[in-house]
Amino acid sequence: MGQVHKLIFFCCVLLCAAGGIFGSPSPQSSGVRKQPTSTVGQAKAALASGNPGEAIRLLSAHVQSHPQDLSARLALAQAYAAMGQDGQAQEQFENVLQAAPDNYPALAGLGEIYERAGDLTKAEPLLARAAELSHGDAHIRTAWAAVLARLHRYPEASRALAGVPAPTLVDDAINFHRVKAAVALGLGEPDPAASEMEKALALAPDQLGLQMATAAAELQTSHWKRAEALTNSLFARTHDANFGLMLLEAQLGSKEDVRSTLEALGAISLPADQEAGLRERMAELLIAHEHFPEAAEELKRAIELEPSRADLKFNLALAQFRAGKLDDALATAEALQKNSDSAELEDLIGDIQEARGDSLASVHSYETAVALAPNEEKYRISLALELMRHKSFEPARVVLKQAEELHPESWRIQFALGMVEYFAGSLQDAIKTLLNSAAISPNPDAALEYIGQIEMDETGAPDAAAVRDICDYSGAHPNATKFQFYCAALRFHRDYAAHDTSGAPEIVRDLNASVKALPHDAAPHCQLGKAYRWIERWQDSLHESDICARMNPSSADAHYRLAQIYQHLGQQQRAQEQMKLYEAASSRLADENARREETIKTFLYSIQNDPRDHR
């Protein structure tokens, strides 16, 4: 279930049974009261005591003989509504409003009728007007907020509820807390939503519906233990599959053993189509928590029940692939391929073949995916990444250039193309393309970070546009400490290449700030050591370079710099020791090509594990 649909589902669960905001008028507190003498008074007393039928009997004749008595018509409408006779209630409310358009109880009552009928667009303005005319009646504002929440207009619903106190009557208070929970969840605030549901549950702890809704809210907050405590009891008492699924999700979140729950869910007797749906949902939860072997078993059972469903077979192949069952995954996918081939399936087969080490078959499958869906960017990117993995940079560039023509505004294509240019040795084109990716991306961090890393690895002056964009980004994001560092380091590289020390105090200050902000990262110490050497603060350079070498002992550059510093300070023995360490590190560390190979692996891993691109 997608996150947006899941959120809407949980909001509906929280709002479910929160209706009836206007129910029958609440009976007065017990005690001796003077019996009303008028017919209308007697009818209102009957309605207040929970006897709407008697109120209807008394008022029907009265309204016929006194058609202008709006108080009687309003009471009759409320009595009809309490009996569930909405047609008659609507007629009476409308009669009242014809004579008194600003009668807010009638507006509210008519709004409730429309709400029960599911006509929320008619209900909302009536309740909004009633809330305004009543000067913020708490009961009406709560009902209005409930309708706004059902319309997914959560900010307005929140404003409608602002300052409304919880009702004193239990049923009204439960509804109030449910509405507040739904609004909070709709606003993306799961913790307050769970808190409101716990308040509702405390008022009626034995209500199954409240237990389920509270468990749903706790699941949204990832309060796994509390959700498990609620759903464990529910499932044990009811053997309801929905409660079992909620229990399974809670246990998966808690990383507990789920075998008994899976067995109990599998033992529920259901018609074939419903059991298949249950098994599919179980598999989805298992996959979400990376229990791939168990998910595959559930999908196999679902396929036995509904053998014609290609989507289940695809999901089985995917689960088997992620479980490392590559031969099983390939067999499942190729069996599906014979009858229901698709670009998505070919893309998956490409992934499977690559994992099996068959790069030629992998490329063929990715090419087939592109042929089946030539306008889909993700399949062209998959093909390009596979070519990059095997250092076929020119073919990868061709694929991405074609994709660029089809999708000129795709930051992913620009990102991949920029990295291809870098791996192929075209630094200037790489930086230009990566900057373009960052400019059009909703989240430019990844592209800018690679630009920072690439420019820091180069010996010459950094690209001016790269320095500008990274420093602009770091200035606009004061908490982005990594980019504060890149900005300072690239300014240092720029000024060092230009033999310009005028900005050295600010650069040293900012690099010192990066050392404090990134205490477990060697790079700020390394750059600060270089900067101090640049301005001939030799002892400070020695201190930072020594930290750099200790934090990153495989850095040949750090040992070479220390050797130079010791040489300048006249400490020949230490200089020689560092030169030996430099030579050892140089022999262990590969040349520029090896560094790029490591960058290729990192890039391919990061882009293929981007959560925004999951299947």
What is the name of the CATH topology of the domain at 1-25 and 38-188? Answer: Serine Threonine Protein Phosphatase 5, Tetratricopeptide repeat
Give the CATH superfamily of the domain at 1-25 and 38-188.
Tetratricopeptide repeat domain
What general form does the structure show?
elongated
Task: Give the helix proportion (percent range).
Answer: over 70%
Largest sheet: none
- Which CATH-level-2 architecture of the domain at 1-25 and 38-188? Alpha Horseshoe
Low-confidence spans:
1-5, 17-36, 611-615
Count of DSSP strands:
0
Q: What does it look like?
A:
It is built from 34 helices and no strands. It is mainly alpha-helical and 615 residues long. Among the domains are: 1-25 and 38-188, Tetratricopeptide repeat domain (Serine Threonine Protein Phosphatase 5, Tetratricopeptide repeat, Alpha Horseshoe), CATH 1.25.40.10; 444-615, Serine Threonine Protein Phosphatase 5, Tetratricopeptide repeat. It starts with a helix and ends in a 7-residue tail after the last helix.
